[in-house]
Write a structure and sequence with these properties.
54% strand, mainly beta, globular
Length: 67
């Protein structure tokens, strides 16, 4: 999962358990998400990069700017 790009569907921020959707196995799946930087807030609709992952469904993310 590390290195995959997803889209925020539930706000990611300090003290929150956010949600992201990630393309997996030909479909999209939801994962819990926390910010990699503890003070960062990421709004719904933003793209994020998964930088750490804890099975089964928890991702640590940072904001992603494509190309």
């Amino acid at each position: 999962m590390i290195g995959k790009v997803g889209r925020v569907t539930g706000r990611v921020g300090p003290g929150l358990v956010g949600e992201i959707m990630v393309s997996v196995r030909g479909g999209s799946e939801a994962f819990y998400a926390h910010p990699q930087r503890p003070d960062e807030e990421i709004e719904p609709g933003a793209q994020v990069l998964i930088v750490d992952f804890q099975a089964p469904r928890t991702a640590y993310v940072e904001r992603w700017q494509s190309g």
